């Protein structure tokens, strides 16, 4: 499916270039109107990132998150600095459908395994962001500032024992660039991990990119900047996905 994405920093919609807070672009959008339109067009889920929360969990944009939940009944998956069971319980209580876990999947694996057991694999999305060198998919964490020695495949294997289902995989070099997605990456991982529902993220700029990604058999495509900059409409994107 197509998953529209909104990143928020200081209460405003924003896109970062390859995760760099110094290279950001704010967008003047009517979020409420966007959500009404998405609902009307048949969007099944929204992806939301609290970039303030990512940098510092004490600065989570709670009032904004509450407002967004009150705007729409489209299910929303939320990411950004989710580190504890308390964070997860609070976000589910607010009404979010899924939580997106990033750095903790590397730094706190015992806890994340426990969360998969407690909440169920439908409620947890692992966000695994990779830098690819010589086809080795090394995971980066903490806003992509810290490289790790874990590969994408190793982490998926580690959590497969807990019935991991949803993985949001981003090629960092593509994020926020509109330079086209890494089709080879998604072909490889979809073929290797048949039980995982992959969400592809990064680089989508044309309807042709959607067609190419659908052909890799990823479950979903997360689209942020292209929709914000009106490279195509949500209606066109959804039609393209369904047709393909």
Molecular structure report:
This protein has 244 residues and is an alpha/beta fold. It has a single domain (2-243), classed as TIM Barrel (Alpha-Beta Barrel). It is 38% helix and 30% strand. It has an eight-stranded parallel beta barrel with strand order 1-4-5-6-7-10-11-12, surrounded by six helices. The longest helix is centred in the first third of the chain and has 11 residues, at 31-41. The mean pLDDT is 90.
Structural features:
12 strands; alpha/beta; TIM Barrel; 11 helices; 8-stranded parallel beta barrel
**Share in β-strands:** 25-35%
Q: Could you give the count of β-strands?
A: 12
> What would you call the shape?
globular
* Mean pLDDT over the full residue set: 90
Q: Kindly, what is the distance between the CA atoms of the first and last residues, rounded to a whole number of angstroms?
A: 11 Å
The helical percent reads: 25-40%
The unreliable regions are none
Number of helices: 11
**What is the level-2 CATH architecture name?**
Alpha-Beta Barrel
Order of helices and strands: EEEHEHHEHEHHEEEHEHEHEHH
Question: How many distinct folded domains?
Answer: 1
| CA-atom Rg in angstroms | 17 Å
CATH class reads Alpha Beta
Computed structural class = alpha/beta
């Amino acid at each position: 499916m197509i998953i529209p994405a909104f990143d928020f920093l200081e209460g405003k919609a924003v896109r970062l270039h390859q995760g760099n807070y110094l290279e950001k672009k704010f967008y003047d959008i009517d979020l409420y109107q966007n959500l009404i339109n998405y609902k009307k067009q048949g969007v099944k889920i929204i992806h939301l990132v609290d970039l303030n929360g990512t940098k510092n969990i004490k600065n989570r944009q709670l009032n904004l998150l509450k407002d967004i939940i009150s705007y729409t009944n489209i299910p929303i998956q939320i990411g950004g600095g989710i580190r504890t069971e308390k964070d997860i319980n609070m976000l589910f209580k607010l009404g979010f459908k899924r939580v997106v876990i990033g750095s903790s999947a590397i730094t706190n694996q015992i806890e994340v395994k426990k969360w998969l057991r407690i909440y169920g694999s439908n409620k947890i999305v692992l966000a695994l962001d990779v830098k690819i060198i010589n086809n080795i998919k090394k995971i980066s964490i903490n806003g992509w500032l810290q490289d790790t020695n874990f590969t994408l495949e190793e982490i998926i294997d580690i959590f497969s024992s807990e019935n991991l289902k949803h993985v949001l995989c981003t090629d960092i070099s593509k994020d926020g660039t509109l330079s086209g997605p890494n089709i080879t990456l998604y072909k490889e991982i979809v073929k290797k991990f048949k039980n995982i529902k992959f969400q592809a993220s990064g680089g989508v700029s044309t309807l042709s990119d959607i067609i190419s990604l659908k052909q890799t058999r990823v479950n979903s495509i997360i689209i942020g900047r292209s929709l914000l900059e009106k490279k195509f409409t949500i209606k066109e994107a959804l039609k393209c996905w369904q047709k393909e």
